[in-house]
Amino acid sequence: MAEPVLCVRDLGKSFGALKASDAISLDLFPGEIHALIGPNGAGKSTLIAQITGRLAPDSGSIRFLGREITHVPAPARARMGLAQSFQITALAEEMSALENALLGVIAAQSSPWRFFTPALRPGPLRARAEAALARVGLAERARAQVATLSHGERRRLEIAAALAQSPRAFLMDEPMAGLGADGTQALTALLSELRHEAPILLVEHDMDAVFALADRISVLDYGRLIASGTVAEIRAHPEVRRAYLGEYPEENPGEETP
Amino acid sequence: MIGARSLDAILFLALPLVVLYAMAADQPFTITLATKVAIFALAGTGLNIALGLGGLVSLGHAIFFGIGGYAMGILASHAQSYTPLLESPFLIEGTKSMPLIWLTAMSAGALAALLIGALSLRTSGVYFIMITLAFGQMFYYFAISWPAYGGEDGLPIYLRNSFPGLDTLDPAQFFALAFALLALALLFAARLAHAPFGLALSAARQSESRAIAAGLSPYRLRLAAFTLSGAITALAGALYADLNRFVSPAMLSWQTSGEIMIFVILGGVGRLFGPLAGAALYILMEQSLGQFTEFWQIPLGLVLLAVVLFARGGLIGLLARSEREGENG
Predict the structure, then answer these.
(1) On the CB side of A257, how many CA atoms lie within 13 Å of its CA?
(2) CB atoms within 10 A of CB A158
(3) Which among A152, B3, B246, B262 has the fewest CB atoms less than 10 Å away?
(4) Cα–Cα distance, B107 to B116 (Å, whole number)
């Protein structure tokens, strides 16, 4: 099997007596969507925060593209190609969609330390940001101020911003949150394509989307990874059913392969 | 309502027109007032880079204003007493040359902003306001208790400093200098706001998470903005000291920090011409209401309250459609 793009080993993080991450190990391989599921408070967001560098782990290590990044600051990780989208949309509200997408291009391919040339000057940087917007279907809304975008458009802009920064891996924290059925379907199709550009570590509550997209699923409960495997293996896993899928009504227990 | 651009142009041209009128009517005091507006606007333009673009509410910008003033005062006082500033290890003489004084003032202001920013920017919100205020008080009391340059009494400079080819004692010519520097600073601020640096800094203000996720380091961006901001405000301080031919610890007091912030807020935070509008309104109120009562700051306070409560875009936001709204129709 190919080398993992992202490799988390024995990651530990406690808040007082609460073990938010308890010796978590997981890999993200090229071309895959690796879904991370678990009940609320299982420690998914804490894990993502440690991978992106917003939180420092107490123990363990994180490798990205073969490089140890456990102590690399968050912005530098992003510039290496670790792109993320947030559970609660985080965008620069007063700026246009294009400007938001451009931020990642500037950081990854140019430099913010340019004081005179207009950032929106036509050229390869802007073209890259525009291409990312077109990819998620926001080409026409490029000049619209973010505050005027609909919820669905903002979710897509988050993906476009991640896409613009030449990602080597995506970390997506509930990209479907708050989307209607149509929006979820469109985004599912988009993510399915994106995995070939860079693998996706996907935190998601929408189980239909997870089962449709994921190549592998890891299940987190009380900060521990209780199971990891293919969709079929996870559906059949007794501990998973008890901890997580138990919340859902039993649906066709016989039909366990997608 | 008029377009933002025309309003900017009117504001910008009003000041030299007032000066032309005052020259014709032989009212040198009006020229001095216009010069004061230009200098305060320059100080506010400096602060606006930190406050408007970067969202850094600094209550310590009097430090940089005062440092600029003392840079001028110290260099000029040594020049007028023919004593060197430093003899060993190398000789530094005083100077009466404005370009040299400006350069010194901006370098000293930038250095102070870099050091103060490096410490203060580790905090945010109210803590940032308090720590910049605390630094301001430190500088203020240091200036008061430092007898070499006048201490509490301040430091008079007998002759205005010189600029090659100009008679700086002529009010109109000194105004032209201050106004030219203001124009340069506005041009710089305008380019900055639309450059990658301005975009990144502004993104860090609006959503720190977005900036970090994009690979930008908010701390470094803010530190650079604070440093640039300090340098520009220090330049204004040097000019202000030259206008009055006097520098005193009052330039370093927290009231001065507050006044610079009032220029920015009155005119419109983050608006390029906001500090100019704010400084003009401030001086107008001081002159018109000040004739009747020494408590003219009470109506000023009411105006400020009204702006903060009802017109967040300040004077410019009130009078003009914003550029963004204009774009979207």
Answers:
(1) 0
(2) 24
(3) B3
(4) 14
Q: Which of A139, A166, A193 is where one domain is finished?
A: A166
Kindly state the tokens that stand for B158: 């007998």
Residue ranges of the alpha helices (H) in B145-267? 171-194, 196-206, 208-214, 218-244, 254-267
Q: Domain range spanning residue B61?
A: 2-328
Torsion of CA A130, A134, A136, A140, to 10 degrees: 100
Identify all chain A residues contacting B198, using CB atoms and an 8 Å cutoff: 119
| The length of chain B, given as a count of residues | 329
Model confidence, pTM: 0.92
Residues of chain B positioned with their CB less than 8 A from the CB of A116 = 191-192, 195
Nearest chain B Cα distance for residue A17, angstroms? 27
Chain B residues lying within 8 Å of A95, measured CB to CB: 199, 202-203, 206
Structure confidence by residue, pLDDT tens digits, A149-171: 999 999 999 999 999 999 999 99
Which residue range is the domain that position A127 belongs to?
93-166
Residue B81 at interface with chain A, using a CB cutoff of 8 Å:
no
Q: What's B58's domain CATH number? A: 1.10.3470
User: Is A115 close to B210, i.e. CB distance below 8 A?
Assistant: no
* Same structural domain, A65 and A177: yes
Closest-CA residue of chain B to A162: B214
Cis peptide, bond prior to residue B89, ω within 30 of zero: yes
Q: Are B141 and B68 in contact (CB under 8 A)?
A: no
